[in-house]
Amino acid sequence: MKRVLALIGSPRNLGNCELMVKEISRQIPEEHELRLLRLSDFDLRPCRGCYACLFRDQGCVIDDDLSLVLDEILAADAYIAAAPAYFLGPSSVLKRLLDRALAFYAHGEQLWGRPAVALAVAGIRDREGYTQLGVESFLKLLLADLKDSRVIYGALPGEIFYGEENKAVAAELGAALFGARRHSTAPACPVCGGSTFRFLGGDRVRCMLCSNPGSVSLRDAEPHFEVGEGAHEMFTSMEAVVTHREWLKGMKERFLRERKQLKEITTGYLEGGTRVTP
Ligand SMILES: Cc1cc2nc3c(=O)[nH]c(=O)nc-3n(C[C@H](O)[C@H](O)[C@H](O)COP(=O)(O)O)c2cc1C
Fold it and tell me: Are the C-beta atoms of residues 119 and 58 closer than 8 Å to each other?
């Protein structure tokens, strides 16, 4: 039986994220086991930025619950990632796990292309900020195949189901997970389906999900984005993942080569400021 892993960014038991995840699961036509992983239940410490996980067989050097979470991720066939909007972005536990994702890339080939759907839950209509982009990025950087992505609204736990609207959204997300990717009718990046862009001046844009550059124009009074796979793309293929992983590993050699020059720069900043400690 397929395993669907729900990665939940809300600490609230039976909160809106959990309810929606369970409703999506009920609407998945394929038989599956739903596993609920509430990220706040786990001891996930901040990444130290040491890059050791790229070179160690045992993964990250920090002794916390990362390996438990990673084992669940590795054992899954598909993901539902759900996070509440906290101050215009996804709750920070999602990012805390994502910051540790360099440790996942040793398993890149195994993780690549698993189906996933993204869900952002915001309490106030139109006040989700970048929450949806945050959840989408989380899944994309987990090397998943993003089948659909939505933002829904509801503040009090359960409020999302006052009407039938969000049950219909759950049905679409449930159908998309192991089915065909849903193509939004709204303007979107043709490479990855992302809907958040940075405007770079003139008609130039960059998709904030796949990082590819492109342009925007008006067609029949609607914005139309033309984006092509480019030099700075973020994981549009497994080859791009391998290239990025090798590039990161190469940084160690570069660091060793340039260590003296870098030290001259950094030691110039030894003095200055009073360090605040706990
Ligand atoms: C600390 C905090 C910050 C929040 N910030 C936002 C926000 O910026 N925008 C918004 O629409 N809702 C915000 N909310 C409301 C939640 O997104 C909303 O209640 C949501 O349903 C919570 O999902 P949950 O029940 O799964 O925890 C915030 C809630 C909390 C606790």
Answer: no
Question: pLDDT tens digits for 188-202?
Answer: 999 888 999 999 999
Q: Which residues contact 255 (CB under 8 A, 6 or more apart)?
A: 262
What amino acid occupies position 57?
A: D
- Write the class of the CATH domain 2-182: alpha beta
> How much is the pTM?
0.95
Centre of ligand 1 from the C-alpha of residue 135, in Å = 14
Q: What is the DSSP letter of 11?
A: -
d(Cα 7, Cα 14) in Å, to the nearest integer? 14
Where along the chain do its domains lie? 2-182
Q: What is the CA radius of gyration of the chain?
A: 20
10 lines ligand 1 (CB under 6 A): yes
pLDDT digits (tens, 9 = 90+) for 65-112: 999 999 999 999 999 999 999 999 999 999 999 999 999 988 999 999
Angle between helices 16-27 and 165-177 (to 10 degrees): 60
